[in-house]
Amino acid sequence: MGSKSDIPIALRAAxxxxxxxxxxxxxxxxxxxxxxxxLATLARGDALTQxxxxxRMSSDPSTVRAMLVLLERxxxxxxxxxxTDARARTVALTAAGKRKFRKLWAAGEPIRSQMFDALxxxxxxxxxxxxxxxxxxxxxxxxxxxxxxxxxxxxxEP
Amino acid sequence: MGSKSDIPIALRAAxxxxxxxxxxxxxxxxxxxxxxxxLATLARGDALTQxxxxxRMSSDPSTVRAMLVLLERxxxxxxxxxxTDARARTVALTAAGKRKFRKLWAAGEPIRSQMFDALxxxxxxxxxxxxxxxxxxxxxxxxxxxxxxxxxxxxxEP
DNA sequence: CTGAAATCGTGCGTATACGCATGAATGCGA
DNA sequence: TCGCATTCATGCGTATACGCACGATTTCAG
Lengths: 158, 158
Description:
Chain A is mostly helical. Chain A has helices at 3-26, 33-43, 50-56, 61-73, 95-117, 123-141, and strands spanning 48-49, 77-81, 89-93.
């Protein structure tokens, strides 16, 4: 066994570590790591359909729906009927959601720095590129079963 | 926003893609991606305590316990009292577990190849190194709350 | 030796991941 | 135009992630 089987292992370990750290960092705000991902994705601009939101956060629509129910109840997001498509609903941050996001963004800064500082100059963009390539390859391999998530580097996480 | 906030996003996307693909690949065997991780970790050698198993697969002990209950019921793992520590139990693959693992390892081969082939020569070991550094940095940042998982590159995943 | 701290597994509660199924709406081809 | 395929959100069931609490056992410091 060598590098080939090391990739999934290292990927899993890194991701779970990130997830754990993020959960802890946002706990004081009563928000989980994944809720932050959702809020951050919405903070990026216009209202999105649930489907588009799920795509942008690389998540399953079913999961996103459950999360939205929860966050809507907390008053951080609002869902409205889509202007032109009766099947869809648009999701956007509320004013409270925007305020909460700003605090969360600051709370996530140490984590982003720890990851960035663990790398040498120039390695961060390289890592991002490699990971995106992996994600693309795996999503394309399963393209016959559904639309791959869109990868938009402007989306944010801790 | 730039590379610094891109890292968590790319990491999440890559991991979830891997997880999804793996789940699909092992579904025919009635095994999930995470169950494969557990079985693969045990396939590496001697019986482990639950705590050590959880560490080696970068998982939470509570989660591992629930998984073991399930896999024990399926007859793929067995848990026994620890020879010297009355608090602990050791976990090992059964013969059926070993047979199942061999099939799963083969089923995961296409996924490992897809990831590997998405990279240029020399990039795989680099990616693994970068990911391990990230994981280490994040785990050390939270070391005050507990023992970090051990990172053993010999452990396997799809 | 003794008491406190640490460790082990267990279980609970909450959150997330995702396949599958469903009904309603939209898009597309004949 | 019409019927079929696709898309959207919803909800269910199963699995996993993890903090927290607990009881039992082991380790450690005085």
